[in-house]
Specification:
Blueprint: E1 4-11, E2 15-17, H1 30-41, E3 43-49, H2 50-56, H3 70-81, E4 84-87, E5 98-100, H4 105-114, E6 120-124, H5 126-134, E7 140-146, E8 154-155, E9 166-173, E10 179-185
Parallel strand pairs: 1-6, 1-7, 3-4, 3-6, 4-5
Antiparallel strand pairs: 2-8, 7-10, 9-10
Helix pairs in contact: 1-3
Amino acid sequence: MRSVTYSMNLSLDGYIVGPDGEFGWTAPDEEVFRFVTDEIREVGVHLLGRRLYETMLYWETADQDHSLDFSTVEWAALWKRLPKVVFSTTLPAVRGNARLASGGLAEEIRRLRAEPGEGRIAIGGAALAAEAAAADLIDEYRVRVSPVLVGGGIPFFPRDERRSDLELVETRTFGCGVVHLHYRVAR
């Protein structure tokens, strides 16, 4: 059965976006970028909410920018090919290798887990991940903690999430001060 993973960057005080909507502090250096590129290779399908989908639309055409270096073009190509499921009640259509979710999150995850296929089911976005966590559908958390305090914004973990015991799978510290933490939900 395919695992469901919630993976995002966050500030040391636990936010994925600061109080002003800014997240430039999550921009990876080359070492972190290579790590994230390797991580996306393990994903078979990515679930996104509307806001993250709209943010990531840049990558649908980034490979056409001839000024980008090889590793950035490589990541763009991987993202572009990756099947995506977008959860939105306001978008009439989506572009690229994406489709609008036809059902609720739990229903989509159950269907994707039952389908033959390789790679993890990744969830991006705090609201979508909170819904999946509340339904006990997340198997792994992969966080990259940035060395910054932003003082508020959108939290990585919802404040009303139920308790989940976790098992440490991996840690890694990058030269820029980012720390990767990989946990599996103890069941």
